[in-house]
Amino acid sequence: MTLDGVVSWPADVAERYREAGCWRGLPLGAWLWEWAGRWPDRVALVDGDRRLTYRDLAVKADLLAERLAGRGLGRGDTVLLQLPNRWEFLVVTLACFRLGTVPVMMLPPHREHELGSIGAHVQAKALVVPDVWRGFDHQELAHRVAAGLPDPAEVLVVGDSVWPESVDVRGLIAAEAESGDVAGRRARLDARAPAGSDVALFLLSGGTTGVPKVIGRTHDDYGYNIRCAARACGFGPDTVYLAVLPAGHNFPLANPGILGALYSGGRAVLLPSPRPEPVFAAIETERVTAVSAVPAVALRWAREAAAGDRDLSSLKHVHVGGSVLTPELAAGIGPALGCRLQQVYGMAEGLVCYTPLDAPDHVAHGTQGVPISPYDELLVVGPDGASVPPGEIGELLTRGPYTPRGYYGVPEQNLLSFTPEGWYRTGDLVRITPEGNVVVCGRVKDLINRAGEKISAGEIETLMQELPEVAEVAAIAVPDPEVGERVCAFVRLHPGRRLTLAGVSAALTARGLAAFKIPELLETVAEFPYTAVGKPDKKALRELLATRVP
Ligand code: OOB
Fold this sequence. Notes:
Elements: H1 11-19, H2 29-38, E1 43-47, E2 50-53, H3 54-70, E3 78-81, H4 87-99, E4 102-105, H5 112-122, E5 126-130, E6 132-133, E7 136-137, H6 138-148, E8 154-158, E9 167-168, H7 169-172, H8 175-178, H9 182-191, E10 199-204, E11 214-218, H10 219-232, E12 240-243, H11 250-254, H12 257-263, E13 267-270, H13 276-286, E14 290-293, H14 295-305, E15 317-321, H15 327-337, E16 340-347, E17 350-354, H16 361-366, E18 370-371, E19 377-381, E20 394-399, H17 411-417, E21 424-432, E22 438-443, E23 447-450, E24 453-456, H18 457-465, E25 470-480, E26 484-493, H19 501-510, E27 521-524, H20 538-548
Helix pairs in contact: 2-3, 3-4, 3-9, 5-6, 10-12, 14-15
Bound molecules: 5'-O-[(R)-(benzoyloxy)(hydroxy)phosphoryl]adenosine.
């Protein structure tokens, strides 16, 4: 199958990136044996007591790749991947890279609403899920979602209680099967490897609207992104990277994250939760040198580090990004954890900025850094679309060798999100300092950023509009010291109807919406304020809320 809806770079631009050495024409799967050749017995991945060497990883990924091929998966087929931070996540991802099968990086909290709409959009051929995770039966959900998809899809399960109608992933890669013909399998997979320009994976855009926004990242572009991020963060053979954010998110996966650590000959330690105690314990036991977090999580670690008695002395860098961090709070993080802070501003769509390793404090605390590639292009524009004078605030547009020119399969949406010249409209308001550092000042897109999880106001509004009580609805962000922002739903109700927050929560949960998106505040108004063009006036609603909530 080919992925027809993928938007590529224009041929002349692609040629430029190839000539510049950004794109090397190699599939990411080829990295596996390169690593295994260089560092066969070095530990690559740690998950609790489980330690996999680079060779283990290559052997297991190849074995799984061949087994998946035997089940009919191949180049250009898509698979919804929803696994927690366990070793199997990486083996499945790498097996897909080997085959040219495209994993779609779902997050563990996603439910029927997200899996169903994305699965239909990418015509998923399979879902890979845990049996039960955090008390939730993913296997049951996956079968329900698969049954609702237009084309048949298999359910692959990682866990102890795999139903007869599911495929047991651990069974496919069981130790006894590994002894087979490793070299022969490797050669067979090499012979059918995808091209560097093929899509390697689909990332979900933060804040998917009614239209599913998935970003096809090619082997060439993602490989380049990983190399640049690893360089920006000084990753090397001594790096021990701890992944606590969901591994399918671009930040812990590749910026530089898990893949950056492996690319550098270092080690990745996977932990399925960012809770301080297990994180501190892992840092102590595994001698972790780098960890990444969204501000809410990093600030919690900073608060609790002093009270604990764990040895965090191995930690050199903490990467913090995903949502706004004030300079005052930023300044406290490094000293509390005994390491340097590197701020990062990035997006699934591509562009990633990091504060330089040797940045003075005012840069490390007060800015979100510089692009990781010299070929990244940044343009700051005003509401009229023209460039603002240097140093002034405007919307950031960007393009470059790892920022694709469109979302997958949504041409109308792409006309809104990308300019005819191929610039991606980030929806973020930024200014650029005289030294060239980006400072994120706000945003124009209608998103709510809850602890780094992006929630589209439009998605919440569409679902709530369907509630029988609701005549009109607008979702807005409420500032919150703990998680940055929370979702507040303003509603006008039909005459005589009542609606409670618990009622909203129950209705949206029943619709299969991920829990982190469910409104945490509900405000009723008799009349909506409107803007001049007749849309609900969200600025006025925010002001109204400030008068109601102390
Ligand atoms: C990362 O990726 P996404 O796709 O979940 O979200 C991207 C959006 C940005 O457009 C911006 O609105 C916001 O998240 N954001 C920040 C930020 N970093 C991201 N807002 C303020 N300050 C920051 N430092 O969030 C992501 C991807 C790769 C690396 C790091 C983060």
